[in-house]
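Hey,

The postdoc asked me to send both predictions to you directly instead of through the lab channel. I've kept everything plain text so nothing gets mangled by the mail client. Protein one:
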Amino acid sequence: MQLYWTEGRRNVLLKKSFEKFFGLIGTKSKMKTKKRNWIPVYLVGRDCFQKPVLEALDRSDLPFMPGYLFDNSLSGDYGMLWVDEQVNLREYKKAIGGKLIWKHRIRFFTDLNEFTSNSKAPVNTPEEFDTAA
């Protein structure tokens, strides 16, 4: 099964994400799906960090699904990912890379209440970033 997208390299990334989601990588004949429990991870950062984060995760072999989060009360730049419950959040952070996390001041939350309380005031200085982590 293939999904095509018309934006340059995007067709390859979309196909890879689709195959990772359905567990099709490495299967030749029948579609074998691996049952996964997905948990949401909320991201807060600055300077439009979503696209580089998704590109970094697409280059890794970790299973994830991009999510969509819309709330007018939230300020700043934020995003959401669905990740496999079996994989440690640290592995996802390693796949994204420390340089990208530091550049965009990305913070990760697994609890919605913690995310909404901390997303009101985005981190802008290195001192605030140290206290937030």
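Protein two:
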Amino acid sequence: MSSNRLPLGSSLRLVAFLDVDDTLIITEDTELGRIRTLNQQLINQLKKNRINHIYLFTNMDLADVNHHDSPNRITRKRLISELNLQGITVDGVLTPADPVYKKGPGAAFNDLYLSAYGKKTQNQSYEEEDQKFKECLAKQHVEETYVGKKRAAGQKRSMFQYFLENKPADIASIIYFEDDKTCIDAVSELIQPLDSNIHFTTCQVQLHSVKSQQENKYYADVVSRSIATSKEMFLKKLKENLNNPNITKEDILDFFNEIKKKDGKYAYIHAQKNPTWDKFRVFFKCSSNKNEEKFWHTATYQKAVGILKEAYQSRNAQSVHETRVNDENEFIDYYRGNSPIHLFSTTTRNNTK
């Protein structure tokens, strides 16, 4: 592989950034008193819209490792496990220590927090990790504008700047969920000067109404708008990436196999506007792809398959390795959608082979 080759998946992925305290973990009044629990309405909206890759974006130290065995506390580690059980992957935990730790976004959590957590569960001292984390927090640069009560916002701003400067190349869109408007404003200001190619959406979590229908509709509206724009960007960027002459047929086959996954890293392009109606429409498909008899494609997905097929056809002078011939045939025979008006000729086998 050439070192200067642009990956086909560059700038195509949508992720969510979630503050933890009072956003993802909220306080509820129950008959037994006040308890800390998951903001399930927010999680449900992420799942409904197939946003299954997130980053925790949290002002934290290592204090919560002391509650690893407490049934009434949700530690960061326990939170990640719960999200995984619900089909959501935490790609990283971004902390205020990262910019000083300088080993990449989320590295301080992976190296220091998880090590401390493991030691605590074994009744061992985690003083070394705690001291290192505190040193990073003390050395973190926070702009003068954000001293005092606004320090939390300044920390989030510094964390986000570090992330943008070191972010994975495949991220194109971010939805940021946060209860603190000051943090939202501090972070949002960074997008234009540092990375205007990122599609950035914010959603302020209102604690007084996290269980109300109005709040649920608010989440739905924000996420829906963001996904609509992200889908447009996905198709535009996919075309741009395919203009790279270094992209091979095998790259296209690999990417095709990835976007087919309804719960893969590009799952958001499968988010349906009318899932109830689509469940009804699947009964009227005249043709179905393998293992997709009960799956209705979105317009974004159908267009993406068409774009990939055109790019594949334009590379007819290339050949694929003999181990990929079956993949090639499956791709060529694959329908651009499951529409009832599609005919067998839409497989494009005749003009691709």
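Summary for protein two, as requested: The beta strands are 13-18, 25-30, 33-38, 53-57, 89-94, 171-178, 199-204.

Thanks,
C.
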